[in-house]
Amino acid sequence: MCEALAERLLDLHCRLLSLYILQDAECLDWENEKPFSESERGSYIIQMWWLYMQGTKEDLWNTVPPSMAQRVFSGMLNESLTILTIRYTQSLPSEARCRLMVVDISNLLLCIAQLLPAICESAKELIGFTYNTSSKILRDIHTKCQELLSCLLLRGAQLEDLYKIFKKGLDNVEMFKSRGTGVAPWILFALPDVFQTCDSRAVSKMDDLTPQASIALELMVLLAQPQPNWALLLKVLCMKKCLVLQAILRSTSANLSRPMHRLPPQESDCGAFLCRADGSCRAVATSSASLNDANFYDLVASASEVILSVGNEEDLARVLMPVVAGEADWAGSFDRRNVWNQIQPPWYEALLNLAAPLIPTTADAVVNAVLTGATMYQAMSLVLACFGHFWAGVHPNLAAVATLVQERLRTDVVPLNGSCLLQVMVGALYGYLLRRSEEVRKEVKFQDEGQSVARDKGQLSRPEDVSLAVAECLCSIDEDNKHTDQIDELLEIVSKSHRREKGRDGQDGGSSRVESDQKMYEVLASDILMSNTGKRSLKILHHFIKCNDQWLYHQLGLGKQTEEVVPTRAMVLRQPLLHTMFHIGYRPFDQVLSGEWVPNWLNLLQIPMGLHPDRVWKQISSRWDFRNPTSSAQNVHIINSISNILKQ
To answer: PANTHER family given for it (predicted)?
Structure first.
């Protein structure tokens, strides 16, 4: 059924494109001796094709399953591109219409560069490093775009530039040499801002690109997908030493005015289709056009969650610790007197989440022990025993970041037993028990202030009462040296485990793993998505990037903005219809015609393309000045020289 629907949709749109959108008698009258629209604009068909493709893409993204939407859209793009490629490469325009063909092909290549990311899975597919991709349609599109580029260069370049290239002899012409595994030449033409600082001839793999170019290409693919690609999102965040994650942390932490107490989202059904009822769907819900303090808090917590999940000790020291140390009273969170304090910085909340795997089991064990008659001394001993027993289930970065914090802690701040790690683990358990005790809102009465620990057993008959009592005792777990030996034993277990993990990590660990291969960053993303906090973090970061993509491009040195952009947008910016109609991305249509953009024809003609001299001659001989050599004596000399070189 799905296959049949996809075929019918594709057939419908291909018919509409070929029979209506791509037909215009005035634009296609190549032999007309009068310039089209007095040479003030390009063809209507390219502009209408662009608008139709944009509108159809949005409709497909919103109405059919993602895989079907991409299949239909890629088919439309490929079929319409076949018509356009044949039309322009085989046309023989008059002198008045030669400029129109150059403008149309340049507009067309710019449009395809904006549409192609929607059907790609990675930047490698977008820039066509190799044509040996699993998608036949992608291979076809790159091949047709290459034909259009060669037609544009050989027909649109000045005669003087062509002569400079061919006078060296056929053996020394770069365009006749094999393209190899570099960036597709048409992409270099269509995305000039991305490759402005790259030597295209030295690029044979993704690592040869600048960090900004690599991230920008992956970001283009990520934002064009019909649904969030969590693995690709993680790659964009963490690649090139977490460049994007650092930018997000710096900006959002600077806008966060104060710490706050953020409760976990309610695990309930929001009413949306296929809602998992885990609360993560409410993470990005907002009715405001701008981000507020709560949004900035969530963003810092989410970014901290990602770097804590993926990074190694070097990444944590480079990315997270500057954010931590940038706060005025960051060390107060590790003071033993603040174990009970639930108003925490967002990065500290992310740190508490690392201890989450052992907290529910430990809490259940301790509460059940007290309910069956255990004393509070025995309960605290059981807490430490559970911490040591279940430590293997905790993310190793908890010990790593605790060590980094311990090295930077001020002397006037004393954590529980002098250990930041114990402070974090006890704080996580305290918060969990406190939330558990509030599930039933009944007051717990104490006998008196001096006997707050030794409760009357009759009053501790309910789990919520026991949870609150145990939580209060946790604040003094290291007092009077009652559990010193157990604490030291726990810290020794953690220290040995940390040394093993540090040795196993090696040089390829941490955030650099997302750049190794696709399977690796897919596994890392799956690990993050296993927890509700991880799902919520990735959703928040994805929504932020979608809403503030122009800010991110500005951080990468791309885009049209000359002034600093502030990332405070909470809703996705929808461009007006008129802007979409007259702009390709942020570029206006017909920039080649207006002179706002002048391609470097000489450099483009020196890119290896693997062309054959016969194909080159076929395009050059179709130029107006070659078919009607009635111009100046100098041009006639150039035409004769090029003809003799290519015909030999």
So the answer is: SIMILAR TO KIAA0825 PROTEIN
